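Bumping my old thread because nobody answered last time. Still need a sequence for this structure:
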């Protein structure tokens, strides 16, 4: 099912949660809503679900307006961050709940309910926990129950609000890979909210970066990371150095840094702001180098280095352990820094 968000705005008192948001999610697509707290991502998800209503604009499912249609008529499954399981019900009954509360004319037979729930529990790989109570489950198992319950009503759209936010890092990584495989198996249109950048980039077909109630950029994970469209996306997504610079005839000038490898920029002459990722800076020991190493730390496969420029600004960069071993850089070393990829925006 295709989702169209058309000029949606939502305000709470003086706070503008959404500001004329436009978004299209294609049928079968897995889309992430990513942004800092207060950016509007959860509000947008709730408006799509019908749990909240826009002050203006519209939501359409396959071209049909959802305005005035309650949650139960939208064919939407919703997975909450904190599971929202019924503590007094077994895993089986939690998953069966949405089927049992249907109007009598639409309610499946008891055997159909048992078959459907059994299939779902096998799908999410917890069929052996059918008779357990929620208190007897781990966080990851509870999240699978919540997902099975959302799928029980056979939704056309699956919405997930910070689905792994309450889990530890290892379980979160395992579950998000499992969810990607499950999405590919089901082919369902899915939208999930997250503040975890790695999660969004790993899981989603496209990522929607939100800020202050607006969409800053929508793109594939690779293009979003390599070609951020705004200063906010450049600074928000991944690690980045933000440095004031100057543009002259398409060239970027920044004292203490070699910018000759950068592509020419289509900006007017004058002050600008440059964003460069730590791994896009080459560093080497040089007697005439203008930067000074102030910090060195090895973390896993990489070495994190901070170098001070002549004007006192500090640049963070990374190199591999092999590079550090072949050309070791110690505190106080004079080094040259060369940028070979960066994003530059007019100030």
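Sorry it took so long. Here it is:
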């Amino acid at each position: 099912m295709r989702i169209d968000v058309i000029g949606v705005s939502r305000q709470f008192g003086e706070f503008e949660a959404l500001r004329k948001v436009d978004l299209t999610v294609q049928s079968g697509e897995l889309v992430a809503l990513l942004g800092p707290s207060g950016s509007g991502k959860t509000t947008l998800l709730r408006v799509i679900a019908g749990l909240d209503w826009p002050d203006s604009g519209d939501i359409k499912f396959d071209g049909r307006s959802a305005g005035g249609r309650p949650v139960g008529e939208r064919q939407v499954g919703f997975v909450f961050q904190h599971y929202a399981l019924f503590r007094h019900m077994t895993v089986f009954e939690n998953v069966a709940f949405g089927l049992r509360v249907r109007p009598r004319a639409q309610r499946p037979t008891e055997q159909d309910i048992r078959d459907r729930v059994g299939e779902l529990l096998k799908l999410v790989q917890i069929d052996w926990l059918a008779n357990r109570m929620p208190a007897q489950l781990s966080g990851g198992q509870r999240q699978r129950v919540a997902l099975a319950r959302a799928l029980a009503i056979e939704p056309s759209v699956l919405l997930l609000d910070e689905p792994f936010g309450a889990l530890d890092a290892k379980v979160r990584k395992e579950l998000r890979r499992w969810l990607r495989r499950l999405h590919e198996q089901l082919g369902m249109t899915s939208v999930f909210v997250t503040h975890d950048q790695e999660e969004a980039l790993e899981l989603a077909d496209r990522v929607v970066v939100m800020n202050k109630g607006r969409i800053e950029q929508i793109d594939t994970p690779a293009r979003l990371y390599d070609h951020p469209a705004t200063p906010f996306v450049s600074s928000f997504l991944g690690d980045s150095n933000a440095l004031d610079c100057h543009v002259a005839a398409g060239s970027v000038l920044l004292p203490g840094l070699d910018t000759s490898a950068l592509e020419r920029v289509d900006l007017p002459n004058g002050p600008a702001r440059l964003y460069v990722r730590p791994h896009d800076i080459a560093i080497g020991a040089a007697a005439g180098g203008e930067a000074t190493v102030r910090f060195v730390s090895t973390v896993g496969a990489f070495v994190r280095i901070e170098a001070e420029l002549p004007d006192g600004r500090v640049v963070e960069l990374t190199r591999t352990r092999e590079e550090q071993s072949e050309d070791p850089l110690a505190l106080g070393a004079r080094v040259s820094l060369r940028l070979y990829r960066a994003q530059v925006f007019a100030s």
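Residues 140 and 175 are 7 Å apart (CA to CA). Let me know if any region looks off to you.
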